[in-house]
Amino acid sequence: MIDSRKSLSPSQINVKQLGRYFAAEITGVDMSQSLDNTHIQAIEAALVTHEVLIFPNQILSSEDLLRLGAYFGELTVHPFAENHQEIPELIVFDYKEGNPPEVTDRWHSDETYRECPPLGTMLYSKVVPEIGGDTCFVSMTAAYDAISSRMQQFICGMEAVHDFASFKYLFPNTDNGHRQLRRCEEMYPPVSHPVVRVHPVSGKKTLFVNPHYTRFIKGMEERESWQLLDALYRATSVLEHQYRHRWEANTLVFWDNRSVQHAAVHDYYPQPRLMERVTIKGDRPFGTSEKVQLSELRKFKIAQYDHFSMSRAVRQFERE
Questions:
Q1: Residue 56 Rama label (left phi>0; alpha psi -120 to 50; beta)
Q2: Mapping DSSP to helix (H, G, I), strand (E, B) and coil, where does residue 35 land?
Q3: E strands along the chain, which residues?
Q4: 297 or 172: which leads in pLDDT
């Protein structure tokens, strides 16, 4: 079947930088039309450079959004989101009186509890409140670049453990809720990611920890882990590294989940806010070549616990 929609020339794309460190507005392109490979590559390059792309005045159907996301990779299904009943790859945020927004008002990168977190996310506005409902973004590339050289050297090679604990409130305290939770725990066990991630395209380093999913620094004593993570989380508070997007209807925002964090501002309820989203599969995060050794992170007062030692005491759960 021949697609009759016109294919657009990359020369028509206009890029207007919005922030000192990141974010750009893209005009001169109708995203409801078919995009050719050259066009897609131009948008991919802009995404890597600017990290957050805003496409205003786009009239898109749900099918258009799915098509656009698929240009840039395989679409994934968010296991804990309000997915469309017939199209699980499509997330529908239909917030209004009686259905308030939850969870997403904390800085985070999407789904870092996965072994391969998303490459990027596309969010499209259909209905926006008159007041409020902004989305804030922060460049974790700029955040990494701004910390001291000594701190950069200290954290490179460290790994942090991520999980989906922030979603566990969704599971009711019932037999079925317990079964669903156990199934999800088996599907998404805790995973380690580098604290400093190397972007697979640009090669730039980014801070890759967030308070929504990161639990602790692997191998580090608990108190020191909390202190270090708290300091790294505060990197998102630097105003110069932030971009706050004020939504208008029919706007598409495409962000690079490998290099930015975001947070939704929940200041509009009970006004309605209707958004649709797709998420694009990413690769396994990698950091610098040398990993920090356990002996460099922690001093033990006594011998380290050995799961396989025949001399250690047997615990009750191991007998059952």
A1: beta
A2: coil
A3: 14-17, 24-27, 52-55, 91-95, 120-127, 135-139, 159-162, 191-194, 196-198, 205-207, 214-217, 242-245, 252-256, 260-264, 273-280
A4: 172
Q: How far apart are CA 163 and CA 210, in angstroms?
A: 11
User: What pLDDT shows up at residue 183?
Assistant: 96
Place of tokens 């109708």: 30
Q: What DSSP state is assigned to residue 98?
A: T
pTM over 0.70: yes
From residue 248, alpha-carbon distances to 31, 133, 145, 195 in Å are: 16, 10, 32, 35
Residue matched to tokens 């959004």? 65
What would the pLDDT profile of 163-199 be if each residue is shown by its tens digit? Answer: 999 999 999 999 999 999 999 999 999 999 999 999 9
Other CB atoms within a 10 A radius of the CB of residue 84 amount to 14
Q: Is the pLDDT of residue 114 over 80?
A: yes
Residues designated as active site: 108, 110, 262, 277
Query: 50 by DSSP, 3-state: which?
Result: helix
CB atoms within 10 A of CB 318: 7
Tokens of residue 239, six digits: 């105003």
d(CA 90, CA 279): 8
Looking at the structure, give the CATH architecture of the domain made up of residues 10-295.
4-Layer Sandwich (3.60)
Tens digit of each residue's pLDDT (9 = 90 or more) over 232-255: 999 999 999 999 999 999 999 999
Strand pairing of 242-245 and 135-139?
antiparallel
Residue 122 · residue 253 · CB < 8 Å: yes
Is the four-CA dihedral 268, 270, 271, 277 of positive or negative sign? positive
